[in-house]
Amino acid sequence: MVLLLTILLTNKENGINRFTPLQKFKSANSQYTTSDTSVVPFQKKSLGVRSAIYPKPALVIGSYDKEGKPNIMTAAWIGICNSDPLSISVSMRPATYSYGNVTESKAFTVNIPSSELIKYVDYAGRLSGKDVDKFKETGLTPVKSEFVNAPYIKEFPIVIECELTEYHDLGSHRQFIGKVIDVKADKAILDASDRVDVNLLEPLIYADGNYYETGRWIAKTGESLNKIDGKPFVPDYSRRYANEVLEVIHNRKSVRHFTDQPVSKEQIEVLLRAGMAAPTAANRQPWVFYVVTKRETLDALGEQLPYAKMLSQVKTAIVVCGDMEKAGNLIDKGYWVQDCAAATENILLAAESMGLGAVWTASYPYDDRTRVVSQELNLPEEHIPLNVIPVGYPTGEDVPKNKWKKENIIWQ
Ligand SMILES: Cc1cc2nc3c(=O)[nH]c(=O)nc-3n(C[C@H](O)[C@H](O)[C@H](O)COP(=O)(O)O)c2cc1C
User: Fold this and answer.
1) What is the pLDDT of residue 70?
2) What residue ranges do the domains of the chain occupy?
3) Which tops the pLDDT comparison, 10 or 107?
4) Which residues are within 8 A (CB) of 231 and not within 5 positions of it... i.e. 6 or more apart?
5) What is the mean pLDDT of the chain?
6) How far apart are CA 129 and CA 74, in angstroms?
7) Residue 40 exposure: Cα atoms within 13 Å on the Cβ side
8) Which end of the chain has fewer CB within 10 Å, C or N?
């Protein structure tokens, strides 16, 4: 058993890759041709009637009771059920307080949590508004909706205001259909085009009595149309690793082809936080980060720096500079390069983890390039630019390189 698990969880080549479902398929398939009958591929077992939709959402419904007291309840039996008018269905048992509330008030809100709000989601699904004031007990803040007669939760990152249009009694549950009147989202989870960045949202999913975190970007919709066979999806599933950190490290690539999609200030801040988390000699943090968004500056840098032409495609670049005033005075002054290099690598890895693309284009130690960057950014003398990092959304053309070479290792 242990042996079987070991084989399933590792890749024979390097012992690092995780065994993906696709690999399991292939492996299972290949066993058709062997005499080993321990794994029979594609054999299904009937589980009977079960709510086997995976994943399920766990969202929180807001409603007012007859006295106007706000209440919340968690719902997993919920989803988009129509596009025009955009409608959401949520099914509730008659025993819930919310059932009566929504039937009477003809409105509800859908409050979408990030995974860090799990305790409120669970609480709202365990106790009834008949017995407790869930807003009071949790400390969450009810806000009267702008357009419908229902409260939303201030602390939840996305709230959807719905007007009840119809309901259906299906048996155990009443299915309420609500027309979406307005969606509000925290600026902190939006990209520059006001689209929800799922990595920033960190949504919560629910299945079979357990909650899970998710949000890892894996591919764009429609990509399967071009790459269903032979060529991999983005990222290549064969490059899955034992954990997310290894996966990001191995999937990082120098991205030189970008889409038009802009990157938000919040996303850049996430990158810079990652940069500033890097280790530095004597904890000097001898750096300063310039965020360049001016079109003329990006273009001027792209024209003059020999390996930074892709700056013309992006709307943002980070320039990592050593700050000589923070760099120390003795021999360790030279550490600023290592320190800023560590920050740069953190930024590149963070970008990869968020589905963004970035590339390290050098400035220091080339005098001519350093001069160009200093002039274009009007840098003070003590700020020495180590590099310019264009940041944007990758087109998917750039892929990671396999740089593993055993001959680079000397075991002693
Ligand atoms: C994760 C989770 C999902 C739930 N999904 C539903 C659901 O879809 N429909 C429902 O009627 N109750 C669901 N419940 C149970 C209600 O949230 C629970 O009965 C709650 O106490 C009702 O609150 P209320 O009486 O204040 O309306 C769920 C509970 C949890 C924890």
Assistant:
1) 98
2) 56-206, 252-392
3) 107
4) none
5) 87
6) 12
7) 4
8) C
Element holding 119 (H helix, E strand): helix 118-124
254: left (phi over 0), alpha (psi -120 to 50) or beta: beta
Q: Is the pLDDT of residue 226 over 80?
A: no
For ligand 1, is residue 71 a contact (CB within 6 Å)?
yes
Q: What is the pLDDT of residue 301?
A: 98
Given the candidates 3.40.710.10, 2.60.40.1230, 2.30.110.10, 3.10.20.310, the CATH classification of the domain at 56-206 is: 2.30.110.10
State the distance from the centre of ligand 1 to the C-alpha of 102, rounded, in angstroms.
14
> What Rg do the C-alpha atoms of the chain give, in angstroms?
26
Q: What is the pLDDT of residues 128-187, one digit of tens each?
A: 999 999 999 999 999 999 999 999 999 999 999 999 999 999 999 999 999 999 999 999
Digit-coded pLDDT (tens) for 277-328:
999 999 999 999 999 999 999 999 999 999 999 999 999 999 999 999 999 8
The type of residue at 252 is: R
Q: Provide the 10 A C-beta neighbour count for residue 37.
A: 8
Answer whether 92 contacts ligand 1 (Cβ < 6 A): yes
Q: How far is CA 179 from CA 51, 57, 105, 146, 361, in A?
A: 25, 19, 14, 15, 49
- For ligand 1, the distance from its centroid to the CA atom of residue 46, given in whole angstroms, is 28
Q: Which atom of ligand 1 is nearest to the CA of 96?
A: 25
Host H or E run for residue 292: strand 287-292
Q: Return the best residue to mutate from 53, 60, 73 for the ligand 1 pocket (most ligand atoms within 8 A of CB).
A: 73
